[in-house]
């Protein structure tokens, strides 16, 4: 405390020295009166204003209300002194919590501090703004001001770090900010590769949150995270001040693990990782686990164990998502089981949670190792800590399957008898779900659930016995056995009320099936004897049962009538109403016709999904962690970002299958429960294209007017490229695109910072791409990511697939280069508007940049020269296509080239495209005849081409293509005409 604040020190001393509450209250009240008088002075200095505001803050901390001082706090914030602003923002934060309507009064002051050239002032404003995250209007108003710090090339890492955390708070308050500003993501993601570990940590938190809503836009973060982890964990590139108990930057390492886990929920989603990156991830995980286990076993320091455990569990959690190897999962489970004996409760809990996650993998690779240590795990159900017991129960649930369900349920039933009240309900729910899910014998299922009801008593959720009733109604084969089991427990006389409820339904509905072993009269008295000791809930279920007994057995009708009449005077309205209605039904003079119409057999239940699934809590959440996050409605981003990237249509995973059609009342296989899970219907997609064109005759092109229009203008094709939207690419993208549509290698893009060289190798339906990125600037390029995004109209049936073989390095030093290798596999026909899109993000000289380019991997790149055909053979095949496919097999277009052409130039262009020029087939030297074969994985297609050049102006061209694959001719015509009209 500075010496000049001695008035505040004295006030705090007086409060602490007060011996009675009343004395403290008097001192506070006298100080409040004094502060109010001082605030009324017009010449109050900033020092005194700050001192009195500090006193008000301390008074509030004592539990007293404050109703003045807001304006003084605002005036104090006008000062340029850091200390004054610091106290001002603390006070304003308090006042806004007490009265949020005061916010508009400080908007201008906050904007002024955000625009200040002093970074310390900016940091104070960001801190304060993050505390306003509850206000969505403020989030939208200040988001742009915060983002300017993130993208600023001159802002310090500290300021950017605070801006990232503030932006995270704003996004949580108003996620619509991503809808209106999706381009921000491309500038945020590269910050993960920052040299500042603090900035990298903050960026990880922000990107991880964004990934929940726009998973595709955050895909470049995967490569950045892998590279960052590799440099820290494997190469040891970490400053000494970032080491914590011998571990390099453990908090950042764990945060990067969590980010990768979010981006790669399971091995089926690991297409974002190339082979090299996947090997790096496995090496990172292996080193992290080995180092952490050694530290856990070799140190007695709690700090070392906590730090090592933190890294260990994060690495194991990621390993469960990435490494599909059963051996690795087995080793990880074994290593965790060895840590169960630790005396530290936190470590034991985290170990159990990690075991649950490994066991929840779709391939069940780690279940065997955990099963081998089942007895060690099971004994923790008797641990004194309830969180350990619950985590142990989750592990047991996850490792259970059809092979061990009977033994697991037997052990859990034994434990249920001694379990404390806090655990009985959870154990009962899990036994019920396991018995239903994995039961091979329906009789075993019934006996298990009935025993569960007898042991758990009133701690069993109603859904447990209701589920038994539902399954019994839908399966005729178990109804008799269920009734017999119910009677067995009723005869003991010692059973919980849940057993009485389920017995009332079973005997009332199916009691006639066991009349030989238990007559109806006995069934009635077994239930009637407990009626007056039962709760109102149980009575309401017994009365309908007695009504059904009345219909069946004449000998007990007087007792049932007496019961109904007696209950008409019940204090409970529901019981009274039922008894009155039933009494009227049984006393009507219609020979019980209405009664028989009312009392009918229970129809089958249509819903086959168990309501108990929702009560499993964290267990089902573990399985959901191996799926992509649900995409909320706000993922429909309708601007430049979506013009370049089609939204990923991820179906929402609710953890339940779609409900099947109503089941048959008769089970198809006696003694076995009907399956409760069915597959949703498969989706069908279709692709079709058609056009009208006039077949080309064998003669040469006719003379035409200087206007360039053909006399037979009706031949003009309507198959021009149709783009539903105009993509926004980086400036001068066309030059490289059309160059490499023409050639298979060359400069794809170049600016003052970056040069991209493109090389293509054809191999039937596969196109091997190699992109070389060269750093032309004098500065290092960091956070460099290159993302190839499919742009197919059909997500379920894309025309091609992308496979990344090697990703470029995330750091490119001045004068150096890095390489990216990608395979494009053509599966079916796709148009030029559907070619992949390349997005490059990088930071150079503190400036975050984004380049967006259209890849020249058109379908024509899978074309190879065809066989040399004679004139007769060519026209025979030409006519065959016209006869068999008609207009569907032909594409024709008349267009004007952007410059004069010669037959030699056109011949060269077609050869580079992949056609085989057939000589001497057309008597006109200005016409070209070609053949080729285009490869896709679904089918190969013969392609025949005729090109006619107008000899008068050498710019008008008629291009006709016929293909054996419907729709392909239009794509080839459009590609070649687009190239000739835009060739540079």
Show the helix and strand layout.
Blueprint: H1 6-17, H2 21-39, H3 46-61, H4 70-78, H5 82-98, H6 107-114, H7 119-130, H8 136-151, H9 157-173, H10 176-180, H11 184-188, H12 197-211, H13 220-234, E1 243-244, E2 247-248, H14 250-263, H15 275-298, H16 302-322, H17 326-338, H18 345-359, H19 367-372, H20 374-378, H21 386-399, H22 405-416, H23 421-438, H24 442-456, H25 462-474, H26 479-492, H27 497-510, H28 520-528, H29 536-552, H30 557-567, H31 573-586, H32 593-598, H33 618-624, H34 640-644, H35 733-742, E3 745-750, E4 754-763, E5 766-775, E6 781-789, E7 800-806, E8 817-826, E9 837-844, E10 847-854, E11 863-865, H36 871-885, E12 890-896, H37 903-913, E13 916-918, E14 927-935, E15 940-949, E16 956-963, H38 968-982
Summarize the structure in words.
The protein has 984 residues and is an alpha+beta fold. Among the domains are: 339-399, no CATH class; 405-598, Leucine-rich Repeat Variant, CATH 1.25.10; 713-720 and 860-982, TATA-Binding Protein (2-Layer Sandwich); 733-857, Sandwich (Immunoglobulin-like), CATH 2.60.40.1230. Helix content is 49%, strand content 11%. The chain contains 38 helices and 16 strands. Strands 11, 12, 13, 14, 15 and 16 form a six-stranded antiparallel β-sheet that branches. Strands 3-4-5-8-7 form a five-stranded antiparallel β-sheet. Helix 14 (250-263) packs parallel to helix 16 (302-322). The chain starts with 5 loop residues before the first helix and ends with a helix. The model is unreliable at 624-725 (pLDDT under 50).
